[in-house]
Write a structure and sequence with these properties.
The complex is a heterodimer of chains A (about 575) and B (about 160). With about 575 residues, chain A is of the alpha/beta class. Chain A is built from 19 helices and 17 strands. Helix content of chain B is about 45%, strand content about 10%. Classes of the chains: A alpha/beta (about 575), B alpha+beta (about 160).
Chain lengths: ~575, ~160
């Protein structure tokens, strides 16, 4: 332990603790801009400077480990003045476009400028002339607003192992970009996960706003508008309205969506139950008939699918061919539901509200996304976009009464709701697969060892005298470890290390998705996850295949899991894609 | 003329030469730069696979150091000194004149691939300020009005 003083207050912290972390322990908030709790310090902005008593030297609190007997001053008039100058210098190459910026109201730079009472431009502005990159249709890169903090680059390279973004050039000309002049994000390895946008402190990277398309559809009297919300949205959107992370607003969101004018309010969780029925059947089939096609790898996450298609196309055959839950609700809305209600699917508009930027890409990623004969999901928006729409619609979400979803694509099991958190798809699939293989129920439906925020989680479940080995990875940098183990075992002709693998691209799973409310930390990930686990725990229905509406769907429409009709509507294919198109 | 930024060639022998040595990426890039006069994208892509280093990292290195170029050099490289002595003796005017005549900016190559313009800090002969150099040939005490003549000599030679 190290003993030191911060503003006269004694602190005792473990060796290696930074001044910034130590100050937090004694309720002192040192301002930061480049430092993010998910990432190692880059010490690039200089806002967090502090002084030692008796020394004029300024230290950066984010990257300086506290030492024995240090006597630190974090705030005095001189330090505040230096911080103000640093902000003014950053603002000298940052456009004053707050009112029309994608981060207006939740920008960390804007907040600091407000706290420091910046009223004038102290320095002449030099703005780089770099056009925005909207090529992916999911996230927008606006390098002019970049403050070179390096968060997006670190997240993309280290946490996600995608390496789509890098720093090009140096000094004043430094800019964030894919590798190469004239190479757009859509021509780069970018998997559209949006973690860059979730970590950017300013408006240099943000989600592509598709809300205008939604308002337009809602305004058209001849259009039948249906909407669905993903599991992770319900436990995060409250943060935009003053609720604590993890607060479950499912039924309030249904009510708000209905007031906004949607004719049918569905839940992606219904699709998750269908996904599980199909995917668990796929697992059972491979497990019992074609073990050479094991391990089975989950495919609900479009960024993970894109990552595999670019970096691991040799694993194509191991991917579940099952579509993701929102794609399933989309296609069922325009077929099963439309037929039942005698609605012409040509006049239907299906919106998905997702925690995810990549779902915007997924809805047109292959021909199978049109298997209803129309584009199955017309528009996908993020949690952040829905929060703005609710505000625009003037709906007081805090006081609105709860409502139920619409039949027949609304009801769901607890197994479906945990789809939104790392380990959840695996857990839900195991519940159903266990029943399919053994014809019996699990003693304990809650699989503790696939839960939690550990990067890779492993587990083993005895099934009919055989041990099913599973792995769960989240954050794409954790994928290599799992895939390498599989590839090595296959090469050596050894027993498979895993039979079933779940991957979600974003750390924490969808609850930590790139389209969720800003300010993500592990603490918030845990709370959002708990929100979903609580809902599952309190659900009467814990198994996807026992959802009565799922049963009805198969009886009336699909026949049985993996039937011809299921394959036509609910499954997809994968192709090898180049990392760079230029 | 469309500049050819692609190049064919096998760089696996370079990778073998430098494999397992510290700082190998920079050494390999040096050899590529010396051979081609720039680092062609196709070669970078090949290098990325061979070294198992992401292309983004290779481009971070290439664009960090002035020595590495992404575009083919001109047949003649014009280096104009903007060091203190040359600057005071009117070198900025020389740079402006070249930019006007050739219709390029610093660091760029003319469309016909003939001239490349670089600005440097010192050429080691401040007594001759303002100084410019074309492919190793030094021109001292250059006047703005002389630039057009000097350049036309190279155009004729071509």
């Amino acid at each position: 332990m190290v003993k030191a003083k911060i503003n006269g207050i004694t602190v005792n912290v473990p060796e290696g603790t930074t001044i910034l972390e130590a100050a937090e322990k004694v309720q002192i908030k040192i301002p930061t801009l480049c430092k993010h709790p998910d990432l190692p310090p880059t010490a690039s902005c200089g806002i967090c400077i502090v002084k030692l008593v008796g020394s004029n030297k300024m230290l950066r609190a984010c990257c300086t480990p506290i030492e024995e007997n240090m006597d630190i001053i974090t705030h005095d008039p001189e330090i505040v003045e230096v911080r103000r100058t640093v902000i003014e210098l950053i603002l000298s190459k940052h456009p004053n476009e707050c009112l029309t910026c994608g981060r207006n109201g939740n920008c960390e730079l804007q907040k600091l400028a407000e706290e420091f009472g910046i009223r004038t431009s102290a320095f002449q502005q030099f703005l780089p002339d770099i056009p925005p990159d909207t090529s992916t249709g999911t996230i927008v890169l606006e390098p002019r607003k970049c403050i070179s903090c390096g968060r997006c680059v670190t997240v993309c390279q280290q946490n996600q192992n995608v390496w789509a973004l890098c720093f090009m050039d140096r000094g004043f000309g430094t800019r964030i970009s894919p590798a190469g002049d004239g190479v757009s994000l859509s021509e780069s390895p970018c998997v559209k996960c949006g973690q860059c946008s979730a970590h950017c402190p300013t408006g240099a990277i943000f989600e592509n706003d598709d809300t205008a398309k939604v308002w337009k559809a809602l305004q058209d009297k001849d259009t039948y508008c249906a909407v669905q919300i993903a599991p992770a949205v319900r436990v995060a959107i409250g943060e935009a309205f003053g609720y604590k992370p993890g607060a479950n607003l499912t039924k309030k969101i249904y009510a708000a969506l209905r007031r906004m004018g949607f004719n049918a309010v569905f839940d992606t969780n219904f699709g998750a139950d269908v996904t599980i029925v199909e995917e668990a059947s796929e697992f059972v089939q491979r497990f019992t008939e074609t073990p050479e096609k094991l391990p089975l790898i989950t495919s609900c996450c479009p960024s993970w699918v894109d990552f595999m298609e670019k970096f691991h196309p040799d694993m194509k055959e191991n991917f579940s061919s099952c579509k993701s839950p929102h794609a399933i609700v989309g296609v069922l809305a325009k077929t099963f539901f439309a037929k039942k209600r005698r609605i012409d699917p040509a006049n239907m508009f299906v919106l998905s509200v997702m925690p995810c930027t990549s779902k915007k890409y997924e809805i047109t990623r292959s021909d199978e996304m049109y298997s209803s004969g129309y584009q199955d999901v017309d528009v996908s928006i993020t949690t952040r976009e829905l929060a703005r729409m609710i505000k625009q619609a003037g709906i007081n979400i805090n006081d609105i009464s709860e409502e139920e979803p619409d039949h027949v694509l609304g009801e769901y099991s607890g197994a479906a709701t945990i789809f939104g958190v790392t380990g959840g798809v695996m857990e839900a699939a195991l519940r159903t697969a266990y029943d399919y293989i053994t014809g019996g129920k699990l003693k304990n439906v809650e699989f503790e060892n696939v839960r939690g925020i550990e990067g890779v989680k492993e587990g083993a479940i005895p099934v009919n005298g055989f041990t099913v080995k599973v792995a769960v990875a989240h954050g794409l940098s954790n994928v290599e470890y799992v895939l390498n183990k599989v590839k090595e075992a296959k090469r050596a002709g050894k027993e498979l290390p895993y039979h079933f693998i779940e991957v979600m691209a974003c750390p924490g799973g969808c609850i930590g998705g790139g389209g969720q409310p800003y300010g993500i930390t592990d603490e918030i990930r845990k709370k959002r996850g708990e929100g979903l686990y609580d809902e599952d725990h309190n659900c009467k229905l814990r198994y996807s295949h026992e959802n009565p509406f799922v049963k009805k769907l198969y009886e009336e429409f699909l026949d049985k899991p993996l039937s011809e009709q299921s394959h036509h509507l609910l499954h997809t294919t994968y192709v090898k894609r180049p990392e760079y198109q230029k | 003329m469309e500049q050819n930024t692609t190049a064919t060639g096998d760089v696996s022998f370079l990778v073998e030469k430098w494999r397992d040595k510290k700082g190998s990426l920079i050494m390999i890039l040096h050899e590529i730069q010396n051979h081609y006069g720039f680092v062609p994208r196709d070669i970078s892509l090949q290098l990325s696979k061979l070294l198992d280093v992401p292309l983004a990292r290779i481009y971070e290195v290439i664009t960090f150091y002035n020595y590495f170029k992404l575009d083919p050099p001109g047949k003649y490289t014009i280096s104009v000194c903007l060091g203190t002595a040359c600057y005071l003796k009117g070198a900025p005017e020389i740079v402006d004149e070249i930019k006007n005549l050739l219709n390029i900016e610093e660091g760029q190559t003319t469309e016909d691939g003939l001239f490349h313009l670089d600005v440097v800090r010192c050429l080691g002969c401040c007594g001759l300020a303002p100084v410019m150099m074309i492919n190793g040939q030094i021109y001292g005490k250059v006047k703005r009005s002389e630039v057009v003549d000097i350049l036309s000599r190279y155009k004729k030679e071509d």
